[in-house]
Amino acid sequence: MEKEGMNKTVVLKSILWLCLGIIFILPVFLIIMNAFKPNNDILTSFISFPKSLYLENFSEAMRIMNFWTVFRNTLFVTVCTVIVASAVSFMSAYGISHLPQKTGDKLYTLFVVGQIIPFHAVMIAISMLSTKLGLTNTHLGLIIFYSGFYTSFGVMTYVGFLKSVPRELEEAAAIDGAGPFRTMVQIILPLVKSTTVTIGILFFLWTWNDLLLPSIMISDVNLRTITVNLYMFKSSTNAQWNLLIAGLVVSMIPIIIIYIVGQKHITSGLTAGAVK
Fold it and tell me: What does pTM read for this prediction?
């Protein structure tokens, strides 16, 4: 009886996971499938299979949307944000972990508070500040604000791990003549490789997918990011769903590649600090 009950539990769990998998995968499958259909077929039946691979959708979408320009813009902003936000997060967390406990805890609390403030609460302030600082319609402005928002999460993730690193390693490096910066880069940074990869992947996904910040800071057509370009294309065209979906599929490719390559690091990186 006990074995039979365990088998039923396994079957129920398997069915549950299968249903959840279908729920998450089905929308992506439908999007990819409709990217190869002409517009009339999409309007007729969104769930039908394509009669033939209509590849003209992709070439036409890239031409009309000025796709390669916005792709380069998005890639530049995303990569720079990942580098800047990760570096600032690591150095801030390293400093906090070496401060006296009371001072370090107070600074850490400030970063926690920064993490819980929603972006929507400061949208107007960011718009006004970017205008006064001359950061509107610049990729630099996007990189600065993204990095500022992401640093809270990065510090929270790093601090838990850095506090568990034995101080003897740094003392040994100091005896060998290494200064604080060299110790931080050559001794401590390699120890948090998994956490750094995890943070980098998350920062990449968040920046690549974001619509709100570039929509309030970028109005120049040649400086737009992919999400803004897709949104504006949808707003300015008369139901050309085939081109919109084709552009959406192409914009998904870097995200899928990054996630597949770094998937194994995400769980281990996020739990490293808590476990240690």
Answer: 0.84
